[in-house]
Amino acid sequence: MGDRICLSDPFQRTLHFRDLLQSKIDFANLVTPDVAIHFNSLITDPHRFMRRARVFELFDYHRCFESTDENYRSTCRWMRFTTALTRYEARGCLHHHDFSRYRDYADIGGNSGEFALQICKRYPQIRATVVDLPLVCDIGRKHVSFAPESSRITFLKGDALAMELPAGYDVISFKSMLHDWPEKANRTFIRKAGGALRLGGTLLIFERGPIPSDGMAPSYVMIPILLFFRFSRVTSIYVSQLTAAGFGDIQVEHIQLDTPFFLISAKKNSPGFRLGANPADLETR
Predict the structure, then answer these.
(1) Could you report how far apart the first and last alpha carbons of the chain are, in Å?
(2) Could you give the C-alpha distances from 61 to 50, 72, 209, 284, 285, in angstroms and in order?
(3) In 3D, which of 189, 206, 187, 185 has the Cα closest to residue 197?
(4) Domain extents for the chain?
(5) Which of 82, 119, 156, 193 has the smallest set of CB atoms within 10 Å of its CB?
(6) pLDDT tens digits along 99-126
(7) 273 pLDDT band (50/70/90 cuts)?
(8) Which of 48, 47, 89, 54 is nearest to 74 (CA)?
């Protein structure tokens, strides 16, 4: 108005999501050189692309075991991206699944604890356990320490693919985690989760689905998501794995966030889950 400069109402509403927008922009800035320099390999030779792209140096989970200054900085860097995304993606899960009947909850590969934190904020009866690699747990414990709900969130250090999980949970979740692993490893994760659930307990899988080719040009901040397009699996793969592991009452919901997501819930209806990992299933990320 006149010579005054002011923020429009839509812009002010958008500022409420500044952390998410900034993280998406920073992530896109990070991976865009990989796409520009190694685009041919991305399309024709994914293994060569993974060897050359710097983004896979960022997501180096081998750095998450030993606590050094360099490892801490590196792990914090990628956890900032995943935490910002999870803070808002969690709303989709909470909108579609009722946690009011649960008390003891575990999030396997739960990262900074942000997903568990959002659930604990909504449901004050829940006690949460976040299972992840040692350095990730150290950073996650600090992340949630400022929240009143932190007293109900415990971090359990270890490699969930190899460790024995405590038993007795009402619900266990894999949030944006299983896509990172080969299908053999997924079967081990699911079997281990089944062994850790109480009879009648629920297993949740909350993941991005494949991005449809609708002819529309993607936005700049979609570049990191598109970079990992080969890692997105269709729901039928997870449903088959759950069925083979002995889960029942399997439900699939499709949720549209910035990209398609899906939420799969399954019940442990039988006590006959095999505990432990099949050595043939153990593969590195």
Answers:
(1) 56
(2) 14, 12, 23, 10, 8
(3) 189
(4) 9-281
(5) 156
(6) 999 999 999 999 999 999 999 999 999 9
(7) low
(8) 54
Nearest to 107 by CA among 119, 96, 98, 97: 119
Nearest to 251 by CA among 92, 96, 89, 88: 96
Task: Identify which of 204, 208, 214, 222 has the alpha carbon closest to the alpha carbon of residue 268.
Answer: 204
Sheet with 247-256: strands ordered across: 153-157, 127-132, 104-108, 169-175, 197-208, 260-268, 247-256
**Crossing angle of helices 114-122 and 69-96, rounded to 10°:** 40
CB-based contacts of 115, cutoff 8 Å, min separation 6: 86, 90, 93, 107, 173, 175
Residue 177, pLDDT > 90, answer yes
Within 8 A by CB and 6+ apart from 252, the residues are 235, 239, 262, 263, 264
Instruction: Supply the CATH classification number for the domain 9-281.
Output: 3.40.50.150
The neighbour count for residue 110, using CB atoms within 10 Å, is: 29
Give the model's confidence band at 283: pLDDT under 50 very low, under 70 low, under 90 confident, else very high: very low
AA identity, residue 227: L
Tokens of 169: 């949970």
